[in-house]
């Protein structure tokens, strides 16, 4: 989990340090009255040409070629180069980071590069672009990504920062922002069920979301979760649109021993849920879990249909199911289904996502909490969203 996120963010932090360190290194070089030794990177034109030729011959071994010392033989004379090779020549060799720095970790490099001198905004801007890109590549909404970078800029830009503090500042900023986005007022499903029970009525939970996002699967998982806690449930097969949707829910009901209320395909979904609520009242069932159609989330009729369900049945909770792997598409889904008036999110397919950004994007867009995570294809692959656990798994 978060593997790609962690890798990319760590790489971006390294790159920030390289850029800041590179700048400081340059400054130090400039200050030196006489160079103690000619840096290897400033090799002769001949050496540049040798390297360029070597790289052009085996482009896949670019990094290996860089690390090797300059070879002295065999060396074709510079004049043998064709004009286009000469034009390409400077690209692979410059600017080359100091070789001794390459093997050092971020902290030691930053330690070597940053003293108590100021980090200029100019250097920081360029460096933070790597971090922003890494966040965007991990499906973090652009507003969130740029917010994180602005936070870091405020903390580092133009400041005299202790060498050892830089990594901590960057990591803390990322964590703080992640936490701030995910830390929405929580929804306690069990408390809702108990409150409805007190009023001697069923608690009605409605699931909405794009086709394939995992609504039906998560209805079954929540049914299993509630049954294990001792609550009785009924399923409302209100996706009367999608082929086999009713049978899919019936199959879960059969396996879990949960009754299913259904109508014919094409029936009014608000009426199906209305009947399920009546059934629950009659039988003293604690919870009604209502499936709905997904179709295409940009479908205006669907949203009107969902609004009608809400008007008629007044669900206690309206949960949006989105896939963690949907990437930035979750932002659009959240905006469109948000019109129905959502209470929270079930983030499905958490097990097959290594980016994590969808969690930030959906909560940022809706300003509603993630209530459950779907973590697999089995009924038990379902758990309450735990902010601390998620945040602590990032670094
Ligand atoms: N790996 C994984 N697959 C899931 C998860 N939740 C749902 N699925 C799968 O996603 C597919 C679509 O789920 P479904 O419940 O039919 O989506 P719906 O169209 O929104 O009702 C099914 O094959 C599910 O088994 C999950 O948390 N992890
Ligand atoms: Mg379904």
Compact overview of the structure:
This protein is α/β, with parallel strands linked by helices and 395 residues long.
Alpha-carbon Rg, integer: 29 Å
Helix-strand pattern: HHHHHHHHHHHEHEHEHEHEHEHEEH
Distance between the termini: 11 Å
Q: What is CATH's topology name of the domain at 189-392?
A: Rossmann fold
The number of helices is 18
Q: Please mark out the parts with pLDDT under 50 across 5 or more consecutive residues, or reply none.
A: 33-90, 97-114
Using the coordinates above, name the CATH class of the domain at 189-392.
Alpha Beta
Shape: elongated
Beta strand % = 5-15%
- Biggest sheet record: 8 strands, mixed
- The secondary structure category is alpha/beta
Q: How much helix, percentage-wise, in residues?
A: 40-55%
**For the record, what is the CATH homologous superfamily label of the domain at 189-392?**
P-loop containing nucleotide triphosphate hydrolases
Number of strands: 8
CATH architecture of the domain at 189-392: 3-Layer(aba) Sandwich
User: pLDDT average, as an integer?
Assistant: 79
Task: Explain what you see.
- This protein has a domain at 189-392: Rossmann fold (3-Layer(aba) Sandwich), CATH 3.40.50.300.
- The protein is an alpha/beta fold and 395 residues long.
- The model is unreliable at 33-90 and 97-114 (pLDDT under 50).
- The longest helix is centred in the first third of the chain and has 29 residues, at 3-31.
- The protein is built from 18 helices and eight strands.
- Helix 1 packs antiparallel against helix 8, helix 14 packs parallel to helix 15 and helix 16 packs parallel to helix 17 (357-366).
- The chain has an eight-stranded mixed sheet with strand order 3-2-4-1-5-6-7-8, sandwiched between helices.
- 53% of the residues lie in helices and 10% in strands.
- The protein is elongated, with a radius of gyration of 29 Å.
- The structure holds guanosine-5'-diphosphate (GDP) and magnesium ion.
- Magnesium ion binds next to helix 12.
